[in-house]
Amino acid sequence: MNIEINNKSYKIKKAVATLLEALIYIKENIEPVLGFDYGCKSGVCGACAVRVNGKEKLSCTYTPQDGDKIEPLRYYPIKRDLIVDKSSQKGLLKRVKTALLSYNQQMLTPQDELKTQIQSDCILCSSCYSACPVIEVNPNFAGPFALTKTYKYAIDAREAKQKEHIDTIQSNGIWDCTLCGECTLACPQNIDSKTDIINLRNLSAKYGYMDPNFNNMNFGGGFGLDFNGRF
Ligand code: SF4
Ligand code: SF4
Q1: What's this model's pTM, rounded to 2 decimal places?
Q2: What is the DSSP string of 172-196?
Q3: Average pLDDT over the chain, rounded to whole?
Q4: Which CATH superfamily is domain 88-215 in?
């Protein structure tokens, strides 16, 4: 089997069950300096995400096919080969307030936990981020995993300051999303960031926000309606 890494072809001369096994084979037998990340080897840590034929995959769970083209995730600085620098994640998560801001109760009920269970499964692999076409044209867009985490904390039953979460995602946030669904398709944890963003838009409406793109529409007389100007 042959696979290409950043346009360079490698022949794998043994059976491999996962792309990660193929990468380790290449490093041990062909290219000792080949750079790639991995951690748990069981789809839990999210460290080994790469692009395969233009789609994001965890290399420890993907079964490679002859002719596969492997590349690093998009939008992060490339450190070496398939290794990217994800250190900007931290600042991004802070920017969109992905933490509880105050408490109105100490404990979550089992029913409360169920409401955010799927969002809690995010392993920060950044597959959704790499798959998102909006970041290509707007690098300041918060992107799917950050917005999913904002949603998780905004609807947390303990959170007494829901509006603060909603306020923070109005600019370069929920309204910049095209609802294309690429993030949802890319997620190895079956997290549906697109739906989380739709839910955040509905919550935003509750606080009086509307899609600012309406402001750019011409309603015939150039009235320049500013739906968000009141708030
Ligand atoms: S649905 Fe929105 S966040 Fe998800 S990939 Fe598309 S534009 Fe990006
Ligand atoms: S939402 Fe899914 S694809 Fe995005 S970082 Fe989390 S686990 Fe990875």
Answers
A1: 0.91
A2: TTGGG-----HHHHH-TT---HHHH
A3: 93
A4: Alpha-helical ferredoxin (1.10.1060.10)
